[in-house]
Amino acid sequence: MPPTDRPQFAIVGSGIAGVLIAYLLTAQGRRVEIFERGPEYPYPHTPQFEDRFRHRYENPAYRLPFDLQGLTTSGTYRGDVDQERHMVIGGTATRWAGIALRLMPEDFRTKALYGFGDDWPIDYDDLEPYYSRAEALLGVSGTDADNPFAPRRSRPFPLPPFELSYEDRKFAARLAAAGIVLHTTPQAATRLAYGDRPGCQNFGACDVCPIGVRYSPNYHLARAIATGRCTIHRETSVRRIVTGDGGRRATSLIYRANGGGGDRESRAPVIILAGGAIENARLLLLSSRDRRADGVPINGVVGRRLTFHHLWSGSLRYAERMMPGRLGRWTGQSHQFLRPPARGRHGAVKVEFSANIIPWSDDGAAGAHDGAEVLDRFAPLTLRRDVTLHSEAAPEMRRTVTLSSVRDRFGDPYAHVHYDLSAFDEATYAYARELFDRFAKATGAADGRLGGIETYYSGGHHMGTCRMGRDPRDSAVDSFGALHGCANLFAVGGSMFVGPASVNPTLTIAALAIRTADYLARAS
Amino acid sequence: MPVGRRVTRRTLLGAMVGTCAAAAFGVWRWVEGAARHGWTPALDASAPGPLGDGTISTLVAAARTVIGRSIETSHYAEYFRWRAEHLPGYRALYERFAARIERDARRAAHCPFAACGAPDRARLLRPAARAREPRSVLDRAWMADGGRAWAAYDRFIFEEALALFAGTDAWVLTGYDGWPGTPRGLDRYRRAPD
């Protein structure tokens, strides 16, 4: 390969962080090579949509075999952490909800302001321009006009919001009478046509949107590849990073095609890990100098403070028909509780009270004898409205990613995830339950039920493990994602988070990736 | 036992009763076990391929019968056609079912299945319910033999048709304008439901 054709950047993982960095660097003339363990995942996701809605078929072509994707767990988390990760071209954001929220300014300073967690080495103002750029790239529809709790912004949303539903507006009035604001939800889905993306037609199949309304990283990946400066190695597993100069520089990565063959080596001046909080930590641990002399010098921070969001879900039942699910996109939320008075004793909570959620699937027919029985089961759901309490956790040292005793196809240990709840989380759950009861009473619910504390779900939001900071003794990377002590090795994405806040992390992951791309473009 | 000891009639009778009881117990366990295992139907590995129009018509008529409600039949036909053409085992199962039910329909109701009246069609499909929930020992014995085919029809035709119904027509029959997977536009959800 001629020197001018050699990649300047090797990116491990084709999720939203890796793809945005690749897109922005290739747009500026840089050469990028991406390694993705997972298979092709077509975009727009029309074939996936056809499989799901026309053929009712879960296509195994879009799944990694169990001996390539896996992990072991301990602790109290009941969800399937492994399957919360979508290991395909484009990563987990190929099927995300699309909720695109900014952290609050206070979220970057929880230790200083509330005495828990730690402060980020950057603040909201540092990230604000990148939030605006991320919203423009992802095509976010939203407004702050109905949300008095929104953080300041320098640019308006690119697109108008998805309006509240008919039922939402009734609820909003009842909640307002009780002093609670229900407002629209900013989301990376094009309410109107945006560039070459069409406007939403409400297929209600948003995780496999057939027309590319809901943002997918594969949109920008295709554009990066179209420049001719981005190559992608599909179904290829990166096994470790090699360093030289006493560990001060990453020199290459070792990879192997999933289908066979031996190890191969790729050299690039800069290596960027973008595999998510769990796989970033795993690859660094697999590459550790403790395992090999030419490995990466990692500190005790890597793999620590894995943090999930804690989502508790409940349902409310009304005497009148609520008809949830008439819109596929998200409608009502309340950000009123992102700065609770007792924050620090417990976490903040974002309340999702959206008209799109209907707890119904084809499974609703399981065991039914005829159509009448199916309809009998369906009918009560039209009286329901589901509530999700999307809650903040405090990072804990004991929630970890380590190496498992179980190994993958190549003999490399999987990640082992240990996760449990703390007294802080118990207090947050009590607060969430209080909010649930307030919503039930204010909206006139006939009755309601909230899952117990043990039912917490991560939302697929895995954060921490390689957190950013200024001090190499208690952080893994700097605010651009560069590993302390190994300046050309980066770990980006959710792994960089210092704290999780209580809003969905993807827009922040995108904003941080854009900031890192700018930094890399300037430095190269 | 000492060599040459005589076997009394009473001992002989007891042994015969014991043997019969053991044999009956064994048969009962076999029926139970065979039935239990027989109720987990699986598709064979036969090659996918196109279906004839007659087979599709029979399958759709069966779906309509099981669902028992007014439905749009086109997506059921598309569903059966796609599975036959793409997934191993479906085409052969569909064709076996269609041949079986047409034979039964002509013999018992003197009409092609799709042209039979609803009560006749329902009666012809009744073995599926028996296969799903065998109640008596006779049902279980049947499940160890001929009932297995019906268990497969129930699992891969009727249950799937009901699942498709749950994801489509059931929405409309419950009062929705359309079901997820169809473009429903962004106006109606902001207005009061009809």
Question: What does it look like?
Answer:
The complex is a heterodimer of chains A (524) and B (194). With 524 residues, chain A is an alpha/beta fold. Chain A has helices at residues 16-27, 46-54, 110-114, 124-138, 166-177, 217-226, 276-286, 371-378, 423-443, 506-523, and strands spanning 9-12, 32-35, 71-75, 230-233, 236-244, 249-257, 264-266, 270-273, 304-308, 310-317, 333-334, 349-352, 384-391, 400-407, 413-419, 447-450, 462-465, 482-483, 486-491. Chain B is an all-alpha fold and 194 residues long. Chain B has helices at residues 9-38, 53-67, 74-86, 90-108, 118-124, 126-132, 137-143, 147-167, 169-174. Chain A binds chain B through residues 49, 52-57, 162-166, 191, 200-205, 321, 323, 325-328, 355, 360-366, 368-372, 374-375, 378-379, 382, and chain B through 66-69, 71, 75, 78-79, 82-83, 86-87, 129, 132, 159-160, 162-167, 169-171, 173-177, 179-186, 188-193.
Keywords:
heterodimer, A: 524 residues, alpha/beta, six-stranded mixed β-sheet, 19 strands, B: 194 residues, mainly alpha, 64% helix, 0% strand
Estimate the global geometry of chain A from the Cα principal axes.
Answer: globular
Tally of contiguous helical segments of chain A: 10
Helix content of chain B: 55-70%
Strand residues, percent of chain A: 15-25%
- Element order, helices and strands of chain B? HHHHHHHHH
Q: Which regions of chain A are unreliable across 5 or more consecutive residues at pLDDT < 50? A: none
- Percentage of residues in DSSP E strands of chain B: under 5%
Strand segment count of chain B: 0
Bin the helical content of chain A. 10-25%
What does the main sheet of chain B amount to?
none
